[in-house]
Amino acid sequence: MEGVPLAVSETAAKADFYIFGVGVQLGTMLFTLSVFLLLMYLLYRYALGPLLSVMQKRQDAVERRLKESEERHAQAERYFAEAKAALDASREEAEAIVARARHIAEREAAELVQAARQENERLREEAKRAIERERELAVQELRREVASLSLLVAEKIVQKHLDAESDRALAERLVQEMGALQ
Q1: Where does this protein reside within or beyond the cell (predicted)?
Q2: Residue 72 near residue 80, CB atoms below 8 Å
Q3: DSSP string covering 155-171
Q4: Angstrom distance (rounded) from CA 106 to CA 99
Q5: Rounded to whole angstroms, what are the CA distances from 127 to 116, 119, 122, 141, 173?
Q6: What is the mean pLDDT of each run of 10 residues along the chain (182 residues)?
Q7: CA distance 157 to 159
Q8: Kind plus residue range of the DSSP H or E element containing 177
Q9: Quick check: helix, strand or coil at residue 115?
């Protein structure tokens, strides 16, 4: 064992058994194992436990926020769907109102046209009746005038009782007088 340092060779000489060619002392191994286990217990108890607790709380908080976010998202989708449905309903109602208003306007326009036609027809009939009344009045007036003139002619003929030639001259004169009266 010439190139091996003295401390290693002394340790190797005191080894209780060998693992993979390395000498192991049972006491040192048990001491190291117990220190390791104690250190693991202390780390778990004072460091890892609180660390896991903090991590669990943080995970719970993240999950809670995620759940709240999903609920808000679902609620927002419901609100959006409700708003869209309300908008669609409003649009349909507005279209129905416009259609009703258009129908009413068309009906009222047709009624106004019909009323104007009826009024026009009524005025035309009234004008025809008025013209007919005026014509009848004019005919009656003309008859009265003719009767009056006939009486006047007869009266003058009877007063003068002249011969046929003078009667003819008298009739012509009366016709001229009647023409001047009109």
Answers
A1: Cell membrane; Endomembrane system
A2: no
A3: HHHHHH---HHHHHHHH
A4: 10
A5: 16, 12, 8, 20, 39
A6: 49 77 89 95 86 92 95 94 94 94 94 94 94 90 80 72 70 75 61
A7: 5
A8: helix 164-181
A9: helix
Considering the domain boundaries, does residue 1 fall inside one?
A: no
Q: What is the DSSP letter of 18?
A: E
The CB-side HSE value for 166 (13 A sphere, CA atoms) comes to 8
Q: Structure pTM?
A: 0.39
Tokens linked to 137: 């009045």
CA distance 110 to 116: 10
State the CB neighbour count (10 A cutoff) for residue 108: 10
> How many whole angstroms separate alpha carbon 8 and alpha carbon 1?
10
| Residue 138 domain flag | yes
At which residue do the structure tokens 């009656």 appear?
A: 140
- Tell me which residue range forms the domain holding 157: 6-181
